[in-house]
Write a structure and sequence with these properties.
With 463 residues, the chain is α/β, with parallel strands linked by helices. Helices cover 34% and strands 15% of the residues. One of its GO terms (molecular function) is ATP binding.
């Protein structure tokens, strides 16, 4: 179970080991004994959205470049037959969205019986209410080898406790790996919050875009702006409004046919259309290099969604800007937003601090939970109290607690702040289990020698 901030390079972190594993074991590209046409990949990567599946596929192909490893993609909204024909030629690593995968398995086009590497990207999203039944079906009822017989990797920038608990059903004896402050946004993103009433949002947005420059592009020609709204209808309406106001804008949401979605993304990515209005379909995983500004025209309900949305900028060591329109409807988010901004060294407007205080004990409670859940490599197996525990010595902690597998496996931080966020750059990792490289600037060069039974664990930051 691996957590690292948005834009820090998780795709490579799961693709490379799979490609390496397939190469090491020799690409067999097996077919099902009873049906020569059924593909039996050894690696499976699941993604919550079609666009993200395509992006992972493109990345995985690069990592497998000039090797015998074959990568394929299967996602809904695109012609079934075409994808099947590719699979029939043989595939080692299949990247898929859950719905299309289930369809392919049920039609005997794919079998999971040879899976050795199973990855869920955006795993917390994959295991929330929307996807969990499908994932359970894929993992538990579709011939996939059991958890001990395959390597299972779950990746996300956010990992709430309840989802971790659920995820452990799919894992056996696993390591929790955290790089950076889990669930937090990177301080490469400058976060601004403006108080804007619903009725003023359009004119506020237009002013903001005008101040950015011609056509709403940020700075240089390629500076792109991504505007998040709550609903599909809202996305279309705002796209129309922006077009009528003289901006080049395009909308992307789940009600558009796949070709339109892909066209929108292509035009935005290339800079031909510098403003994209999106629902949460574009909030996770998408890596669009020149997104300079993310605007939360409508704030999401959960702070984790906010973290993923603003994470479309400030990627791969670059800086970015995120602006949120906040009003009375967003009070329940105030406390978590204030905390998040403080943790990322952002200036919090005094009125927002007051909103957080006014929003009352309910959200304070939420915030406390979040704090306990978020930092210091917040492996839920450590228990809720761990965030406030002071670690006087690693051995006393190790003696006091043992998790799941019955092994002692800790990487105890020499010191933690009140969030349980380890201040140290790196520290011991024991034989198995929990590992936390707590500093985003963790030093790859100094991180050798973390002897784990899985081999050494490298934590690479941006410096
Ligand atoms: N070692 C590296 N050096 C430079 N760039 C890198 C490195 N690793 C990854 N990148 C680049 O960083 C960008 C972000 O990577 P990636 O999309 O994998 O992030 P992520 O952690 O999965 O983010 P998210 O949580 O938003 O899905 C990509 O453009 C990728 O090519």
């Amino acid at each position: 179970m691996a957590c690292a901030q948005t834009g820090s390079g998780k795709t490579a972190a799961f693709c490379l080991p799979i490609v390496f594993g397939v190469l090491r074991e020799g690409s067999k590209r097996e077919r099902h004994p009873s049906s020569r046409r059924t593909a039996c990949p050894s690696g499976l990567v699941l993604s919550p959205t079609r666009e993200l599946a395509c992006q992972i596929y493109e990345e995985a192909k690069k990592f497998a470049y000039q090797t015998v490893v074959k990568v394929a993609v299967a996602y809904g909204g695109a012609p079934f037959g075409q994808q099947v024909r590719t699979l029939e030629k043989g595939v080692d690593i299949l990247v898929a969205t859950p719905g299309r995968l289930v369809d392919m398995i049920e039609r005997d086009k794919v079998s999971l019986r040879k899976i050795r590497y199973f990855t869920m990207d955006e795993a917390d999203r994959m295991l929330d209410m929307g996807f969990e039944p499908q994932i359970r079906k894929i993992v538990e009822r579709m011939d996939m080898p059991p958890s001990g017989a395959r390597q299972t990797m779950l990746f996300s920038a956010t990992f709430p406790d309840d989802i971790q608990r659920l995820a452990s059903d799919f894992l056996s004896d696993y390591i929790f790996l955290a790089v950076g402050r889990v669930g937090s946004s990177t301080d490469l993103i400058a976060q601004k919050v403006e108080f804007v009433d619903d009725k003023d949002k359009r004119s506020f947005l237009v002013d903001l875009l005008h101040s950015q420059g011609k056509n709403g592009s940020v700075g240089s020609k390629q500076g792109l702006t991504l505007v998040f709204v709550e609903t599909k209808r809202g996305a279309d309406a705002l796209e129309n409004w922006l077009l009528r106001s003289g901006f080049h804008a395009i909308a992307i949401h789940g009600d558009k046919v796949q070709m339109e979605r892909e066209r929108a993304l292509r035009s935005f990515r290339s800079g031909a259309i510098p403003i994209m209005v999106a629902t949460d379909v574009a909030s996770r995983g998408l890596d669009i290099p020149h997104v300079a500004h993310v605007i939360n025209y409508d704030l999401p309900k959960s702070i984790d969604d906010y973290v993923h949305r603003i994470g479309r900028t400030g990627r791969a060591g670059k800086s970015g800007l995120a602006t949120a329109f906040f009003n009375g409807k967003n009070l329940s988010l105030a406390t978590a937003l204030v905390q998040l901004m403080q943790e990322a060294n952002q200036q919090v407007p005094s009125w927002l601090g007051e909103c957080a205080e006014q929003s009352g004990s309910h959200s304070h409670g939420l915030a406390r939970n979040r704090r306990a859940n978020r930092f210091g490599g917040n492996d839920f197996r450590r228990g809720p109290k761990s965030s406030n525990r002071s670690y006087s010595s690693s051995s006393s902690y190790r003696d006091a607690h043992t998790y799941g597998s019955g092994e002692n496996y800790y990487a105890d931080p020499p010191s933690t702040d009140v969030y349980g966020y380890a201040a140290a750059d790196s520290y011991l990792s024991a034989s198995h289990g929990y590992y936390d490289a707590a500093n985003n600037n963790s030093r790859a060069n100094e991180s050798d020698g973390y002897g784990t039974s899985h081999g050494s664990v490298m934590a690479s930051g941006w410096e």
